[in-house]
Amino acid sequence: MKVKGYALYPIGIVRSEIREPMPPERFKNRTSIIAIDESYREALEGITKGKKVLVLFIFHRSHGFSVKVHPKGEKGRPLKGLFSTCSPSRPNPVGATVVEVIEKRGCLLTVKGLDAIDETPVIDIKPVHIDEQEYERGR
After folding, report:
1. I need a labelling partner for 26 at 20 to 30 A (CA). Which of 4, 11, 86, 98 fits?
2. Are 113 and 98 in contact (CB under 8 A)?
3. Structural domains present in the chain
4. DSSP character string of 113-130
C-alpha cells in the first residue's frame, strides 16, 4: 500500500508543571495551559469555560515503536497489539485527550485532565459532541 505523507504544524504548546511522562490517570485532576499561536486567536471563538474539547498533540519525546507492547509498560502484563493500548510509542506519535476548559484568556486555554507534559506541541483542538443533536447543530 502506498500512502501519501502529510506534514503537521503545531497550533500551540502545553505549559505544565509536569515535565516527565507519567501514567495518564495521574493527570486526571491536574490543570495545564495550552498557549495557542496568536494567528489562531479567532479559531478559539466558541470555546468557553466548562466545555469539553478534544486536544490532539504530538508525543514529542517518543521515538520508535513496537507493534506489540505491555499495557502501561508493565512487563508483568501480557503483550497486546499497539493499537489496542494508549502507548505513546506509535507509528505516528499523536495523542488525543478529552479535557474540560477551565478558563480562556486570549490565546491561553486553561484545561483540566490533559495528559501531556510541558512543551508538548498541540496540533488541533476539536469540540466534543455529547449527543447526535448537538453534533448536528455544531456542524
Report:
1. 11
2. yes
3. 12-62+93-128 (2.40.30.70)
4. S----TTPEEEEEEE--S
Please tell me whether residue 81 adopts helix, strand or coil conformation. strand
Contacts with 50 (C-beta within 8 Å, 6 or more apart), sequence order: 100, 101
pLDDT digits (tens, 9 = 90+) for 69-107: 888 778 899 998 888 887 777 777 899 999 999 999 999
The phi, psi pair for 25, rounded to 5°, reads -65, -20
Q: Provide the Cα torsion 71, 15, 31, 62; round to 10°.
A: 0
Q: What are the tens digits of pLDDT across the range 46-76? A: 999 999 999 999 988 877 777 888 887 788 9
Give 60's contacts (C-beta < 8 A, 6+ positions apart): 93, 119, 120, 121
pTM for this predicted structure: 0.83
